[in-house]
Amino acid sequence: MQLAFLWHMHQPDYRDTSGIMQMPWVFLHAIKDYYDMPWMLARHSGLKATFNITPPLIEQIQLYSEDIVSNDRFFTLWMKHPSELNETDRQWMIKMCKSSPYDTMVEPIKPYRKLYHSEHLDDDALCDMEVWFLLSWCGAYLQTHNNTVKVLLASQGKFTYEQKYALLETLGDFVKTIFPYYAKLQSEGVISLSTTPLNHPILPLLIDMNNAVLAHPGTNIPEHPLSLADDAKLQILQAQALYRKTFGHDAVGFWPAEGAVDERSIALYRDAGLKWVATDEAILFKSLGSEDYDALYHAYKHNGMTIGFRDHKLSDLIGFTYRFWSAEHAADHFISALSPIAEKGDDRTVFIILDGENAWEFYHNNAFDFFDALYAKLAKTEWCSMVGMDTIAKQESRELPHLAAGSWIHGEFNTWVGQPEKTRAWELIYMTRRDYERHKEGINEDIQKKIMQHFLAAECSDWFWWYGDDHTTEFSAEFDELFRSHLINIYLLMQIAPPYDLYVPIISDRSGEDFLLQPKFTIQPLINGKYNSFFEWVGSGVVDETKLFSTMDRERGPVERIRFGQNENIFYCAFEGDIEALKHCDMLKIMIEPFDVHFEVPLISLCSTKSSTMESKKIKLLIACDTWLEFSLDFNGIEVESVQFRFEIERDGIIIQTLPGFGELKIAMNTTYAENWFV
């Protein structure tokens, strides 16, 4: 029997738009896991495994190798004396220093444990706690091989600045050895290396959001989703280029982010020259139409691509269960679970695939005792040989005619789309992409490249993982801010005022009732640019832009309120606010989805003539401006159920306001508002 371990090494991209890492998790796992995991394997001769190293991890470790302090917010503050910190930074540092898992990383270090429970930390105590926090993240290799770490761990604290600096310096030198160590083990045949699409995206959702519905009917996906298939190709190609630059050759295989696959993504991997990918057993069972565990323990080929399907139960035992057991008992249990599989034939391959970093801080001694026991037993097991995925890709495998779409979580995508917060994040990406496509023609090539990198970063699966109520973290606000910062920066690069909603946390419990009133009745106002009577707009919807920007440090545009509504196939809208300022703007742009219709209204000429009529793709626009600006859009002759609107106001070649501030104005054209009738 063959046993194929694949350890997935990944952290999100913690860099903000300035390139500074806002959280230190890459560094902390670097000193605890990224060296230790291959080192624990290499200590036992004859064993092999695959390590998947993602591009965000590669890039951030390289930044740490260049300069830790200037590239990381945490270490910039860590190197300061606590007396130099303002209260916000001080409380954040305390929060970070209490983030180590208590039972396995805090409790074993007596001085750290005492500080952890202190209600008040003076400057010297906080300085000590910062050092103990970093020491608690040092893995088994550093604790047994690095003199600086060993001496500090044996002390009682009261660290000097010189000791603090020496610790960071020695850890920085250690981080620089990680990738050379992987390359050495690969050249010796101990490990195979692979990577993941650039920003760890859910590739099938980029290609076609409807994959979420195919995998789980009834999933609430965004309306009018865009296919980002070209982005999917870029995610693959740029990942391969970074891997090649780092290790000197192309990767043979990829672990798709979250094991997410569909037939079109497999074709993209094949076209990029890859030989293998891996995913979860749920995908195999859905593809075969039955839970055939006898079929699980083989490699398959689909469309020329070798695919390994992970044994979910055995993988999860390591990831979630064995941490509660003694090392010897857990290792024996794992071997005994493999034995019945091996007894069924000598051509079996078991795929054990899981996170290679985040579980071990919940094991005692960072799982060293468990892996030492497990690898020692596997090295002596004659009926089982450990192999890398590159070797499996060269072997014969079974044909798989159909590959179902899904991920490692229940063979579905609901972890990344479906709940309101997750779906909202996708909607903001689509809104930003539509705005970019409308304006990219006038943007120079270098800026376009920067914008695309922000799009690729915003497509990372980790943002969607933390949205919704299925996962929680103390740092959800930081994740949310990082996600939205990429979209904000795209608008800034385009020299367009970002929509206000990009400054409002997605994770908050904000209610649209404060700034958005939905229409109650149909309306039919006279379009002449004047407020003719109160009754014309009774029952209309209202967007109060002043309530949107009142909570943000943002300069508002001329429009303060939007009134809107419809009657049969005609949509009506009016802008209130600083109309004189609006009259001195150059252009109003009206974008209508899903018809891809754009109207460009010269405001100066409109205000001198009072009204104008335009037509595009059978949609007729009647617009007028006097005491306010109002317009109607006639959809007669066009079959339409729901429509989305976006508005831009341009002055001196710069878009000074995008409306509505929360993204896109959606209206159902076939509603009767019967629920609001009364007698």
Structure overview:
Helix content is 42%, strand content 18%. Among the domains are: 209 residues, 7-stranded beta/alpha barrel, CATH 3.20.110; 84 residues, immunoglobulin/albumin-binding domain-like; 165 residues, Immunoglobulins (Immunoglobulin-like), CATH 2.60.40.10. By secondary structure, it is an alpha/beta fold. About 1% of the residues have low confidence. The strands form four sheets. The protein has a seven-stranded antiparallel β-sheet with strand order 11-12-13-14-19-18-17. Strands 1, 2, 3, 8 and 9 form a five-stranded parallel β-sheet that branches. A five-stranded mixed β-sheet has the order 4-5-7-6-10.
Principal-axes geometry comes out as globular
Number of strands: 22
Count of discrete alpha- or pi-helical segments spanning 4 or more residues? 30
Q: If you compute it from the alpha carbons, what radius of gyration comes out, rounded to the nearest whole angstrom? A: 29 Å
Q: Percent helix among the residues? A: 40-55%
Name the CATH architecture of one domain: Alpha-Beta Barrel
Helix vs. strand class: alpha/beta
State the fourth-level CATH superfamily of one domain.
Glycoside hydrolase 38, N terminal domain
CATH class of one domain: Alpha Beta
- Quote the average pLDDT: 92
Largest β-sheet summary: 7 strands, antiparallel
Q: Give the neighbour order of strands across the main sheet.
A: 11-12-13-14-19-18-17
Distance between the termini: 77 Å
Unreliable parts: 509-513, 550-554
Binned strand content: 15-25%
- Write down the CATH topology of one domain: 7-stranded beta/alpha barrel
| Oligomeric state, counting identical vs distinct chains | single chain
